[in-house]
Amino acid sequence: MANKPSIPKGTRDFGPEEMARRNYIFNTIREACNLFGYQQIETPALETLSTLMGKYGDEGDKLLFKVLNSGDFLKDVDEESFSQKDLRKITSAISEKGLRYDLTVPFARFVVMHRNDIPFPFKRFQIQPVWRADRPQKGRYREFYQCDADVVGSPSLNNEIELLSLLEFVFAKLGIRTVIKLNNRKILSGIADYIGASDHLVDITVAIDKIDKIGLENVVKELEEKGLKKEAIEKLTPILTLSGSNEEKLATLSEILKDSETGMKGIEEMKYVVSGYEQLNKGKGSGLSTLDLDFSLARGLNYYTGTIIEVKAADVEIGSISGGGRYDNLTGVFGMPGITGVGVSFGADRIYDVLSALDLFPAQSADGPQVLFLNFGEKESGCCLQLIEKLRDAEVSSMLYPDTVKIGKQLTYANALNIPYAVMIGERELEEGKAVVKNMASGEQRDYCFEALVEDCKSIFAR
Amino acid sequence: MANKPSIPKGTRDFGPEEMARRNYIFNTIREACNLFGYQQIETPALETLSTLMGKYGDEGDKLLFKVLNSGDFLKDVDEESFSQKDLRKITSAISEKGLRYDLTVPFARFVVMHRNDIPFPFKRFQIQPVWRADRPQKGRYREFYQCDADVVGSPSLNNEIELLSLLEFVFAKLGIRTVIKLNNRKILSGIADYIGASDHLVDITVAIDKIDKIGLENVVKELEEKGLKKEAIEKLTPILTLSGSNEEKLATLSEILKDSETGMKGIEEMKYVVSGYEQLNKGKGSGLSTLDLDFSLARGLNYYTGTIIEVKAADVEIGSISGGGRYDNLTGVFGMPGITGVGVSFGADRIYDVLSALDLFPAQSADGPQVLFLNFGEKESGCCLQLIEKLRDAEVSSMLYPDTVKIGKQLTYANALNIPYAVMIGERELEEGKAVVKNMASGEQRDYCFEALVEDCKSIFAR
Prior knowledge:
Two copies of one chain form a homodimer. Chain A is α+β, with helices and mostly antiparallel strands. Chain A is 43% helix and 19% strand. Chain A contains 19 helices and 16 strands. Chain A has helices at 16-35, 49-52, 57-63, 79-83, 87-94, 104-113, 158-174, 185-194, 201-208, 211-225, 230-240, 246-256, 261-281, 348-357, 378-393, 407-416, 427-432, 450-455, 457-460; strands spanning 39-40, 46-48, 66-67, 97-99, 122-131, 143-152, 178-184, 289-293, 307-313, 320-328, 340-346, 371-373, 398-400, 421-424, 434-439, 445-449. In chain A, helix 15 (378-393) links the parallel strand 12 and strand 13 (398-400). In chain A, helix 1 (16-35) runs antiparallel to helix 7 (158-174), helix 7 (158-174) crosses helix 13 (261-281) and helix 10 (211-225) runs antiparallel to helix 11. The longest helix of chain A is centred in the middle third of the chain and has 21 residues, at 261-281. Chain A is globular and about 95 Å long. The model of chain A has no long low-confidence stretch (mean pLDDT 93). At the A-B interface, helix 1, strand 1, strand 2, strand 3 and helix 5 of A face helix 1, strand 1, strand 2, strand 3 and helix 5 of B.
C-alpha cells in the first residue's frame, strides 16, 4: 500500500505551469474555432466496442483500450473459448466498452445518432483526450489530447478555404511560422493514371509520401520493388520534383494530367482553393505562413478523397503540427451514407514542443496568482482578507498566505509560485492603515493607504 | 456494422447548446479558482489499479472501471484461478489499470509523486471527468465531471474561510441563492462524548445525517435499533433541534460540550471560521448566501476530520450542489503521512440542473456564431470571405454559408443555429459595395457600405 505510487506508462500529470501553457494552446484554438463559427461538442470517453472495432484496421483494433465488464464478467464466455483460451472470443465476451481512439469515429457516431437535431452543414470542433495502447516512446503517449475542427454535409470548397484561414489564424496567434502543404487525392489518382499505373495507386502514394524522409532515390527503389515499370517511374519523377511558384506548378501539372478526368477534377479543385487562399492573403505582405503545393503529400490515402492538408513549423524540425483533408462517406459505416466532410486536426503536443523550442509561450502566465498577502498574525490577516476580497472583485488574483510562519518562508513561497507582488501589513501598517507592496522581481517597495491599494489595484499590480 | 449506433448506458453526448452552458459553469469555476490563487492541474484518466484499489471501500472497488491489459492478457493468469474461475484473482491478473473514480485519490497520488517540486501550501483545482460503474439512473451517470479545489499542507483555518468565500463567489456569479451548511467532525465527536455514546459515533452520525430526509422520529428509531440507550437519545435530540442565530447555537452548544475536550476544540474552530466569514460579509446586506450551522451534517464522517461544508440551492429542491471539508492524512496511504488538506467539490451536473430550473443561463451563448454571410454565388462569396476575415480580426464570430443554395434555406439555417445576424451581398450589392444586414430576431434590415460594416462591426453586430 505504501509503495511509491506511479502512473501508467505513456500517461502524464500536468502541473500548474504545464497546464497554463496547455490552456494557452487550447484556448487559442477554442477561441479561433468559435470565431470561425465552429461549435464545440463533447462525446463520452467510453464508447461501445462495436462503434470502435473495425474502424482503424486490424492494428487499430489491437491498440484499443478495452474495459472489463462489471460484475461476473466471465458469465458470457462459453466453455469452449474458455478452455481453448481463445483470446479474441474471450475479449468480446468480457468487454463491451472501450476508450475513444480518436475524435473522428465518435464524431461520425454522434452525427448519425443526432442526425435529426443537427442543422447541416454542421461545423463542430472537439478538444478531448484519446487513448491508444501504443508502445510509449519519446513524444508518443497512450493518453493525449486531440483538437479537431470539421464541417460535415457541405461539398463546397469554401470549407477548405475557411479551414486554411483557420490554420493561419491559429498559428499566427501562437506566433508560429508555418508551411501549409496542399495536395488532392484526385491529383494522386490522376498521376497514377498518367503514368499508366492506376492499379499501383496505394504503392505509389505510400512511397512518395516518404520522399522528405528517405529521398527520391529510395522512393524510386521502393517503387521498383513494388513492380512499377521503368517507364512509369520515369514519367513520375519529374512530377515529384516540380519546382516554381504554385501557379507554375499547377499550370505544368494541368498540362501533364490533361487526359485524366479525375486528375483534372483535382486540379480544378486545387485551383479554386489556392485562388481563394491567395485572395484572402493579397496585400498582407509576407505573413507567417506559406502555401506550398506538394504532389507527394498523401497522409493516409485511403481516408481522404479530395483536398489533403498538412502543416509544418517553418523553424523547427518536428514533423507535422496539423493536418487534415476531405473525406467522403464518414458516416456510411453507421448506416448514413453520402455525407461528405472536411476537417483539420491540431497536434497539441507537437505545438507545445514548437512553442517551447522557439520560446514563444507568454512569459507571465495569465492564470497564476498576482498578489500574495503575507500573514503577520490573526488580526492582520482579518484585515488582509477584506482587502483581498476587494481585489478579487476587481479581478486581481490574490491570496493570503494561510499560516503565520516566518516572513522569509512566505517570500520564498511567492518566488516559488512566480507571484509578482507581495503585500505586507504588519502591526504598525495595520495601525497606520497602509500596506507595503513589494515588487518581487525588482525588490522595490512602496506604501499605499488601503483605499489607494483597492482603488488603483489594476495599475499597482500590473502583470 | 450498419446497426443504429448507441453510447454506453450512463454516458452522454453534449451538443453545442449544452456545451455552451457547461462551459459557462466550468469557466465560472475556473476563473474564480484562478482569482483565488488556486492553480489548475490535470492527472491521467488511467491510473494503475494499485493506486485506486482499497481507497473507496469494497463497494468502491467493485465500481471501478478496469481496463484489460493489452496483448495476451491471459498470460499472467495461473491455471488454478483460471480453472476455478476465480474472478478476483483473474481480474488482478488481466487488468492493471483503471479509470479515475474521483479527483481526490489521484490528487493525493500527484502530491506524493511530485512532493519535491510542489511549494506547500499547495492550492490546486482540477476539472476532469471521473468514471463509476454505478447503476445508471436519473441524475446519476457513469461518466461525469468533478470540479475540486483543495489546499494541502496548511492547517490554518484561514483556508476554510477562503473556501467559503470561493463558494459564495462562484454561486453569486452564477446567480444561485444558497444555504451553506457548516459542521465540524470534532463537534460530532463531542456530542457523542456528551451523550455517553462515543463508541456509537458512526451509528449516530449515519443516522442524524438523514434527519432532513426521514425526520427526527425515524432517526430516533434507527438509533434505538443500533442499541443507543434511551438516556443518550434523550440528551441528543435537543441538540439536533437547536434553533436561533448561529451565535446563539454556538453559545448553547459551547455550554453543552464544555466537558469534552474534542468537542470544545470543534467549537473553537467553528467560531473562528464563522467569525471570519461574518467579518467578510459585514455590510453586504442580504447577500445571495446564508451560513447555517447544522450539527447533524456528516457527509462521510470517516473521511473528514474537522470542518464539514455542504451547499444547497435555496430555491430548488435538489440535494447538495457542493460540499467538502477538512481531512487529515490524505497522502498517508501513499507513504507520506501528516499532510492535512481542506477542499470543496462543485457538483457540475446538479448546478446545471439548478440553472436550468431557475432559467439562469445567459440568454445568448457567448460561443455561437454571431453573423452568417449568405451565399449568393462564387463571385459574391469571394467578397464575403474578405469581409468575414476582417470581422474575425475584430473578434466578431462570423462565417459564410458554404454552399450556394436557396436563400430561404440559408436563413432557416441561421435560425436553427440561433445566429442573430444575416448579411446579404447579392450581385447588385456587390456592384454598389454595400451589404444588407438582417436582424434575425426583429426582421429589421439595414444597408451598410463595406467600410462601415467592418469599421463599426462591434456595434452593428452587438449580441
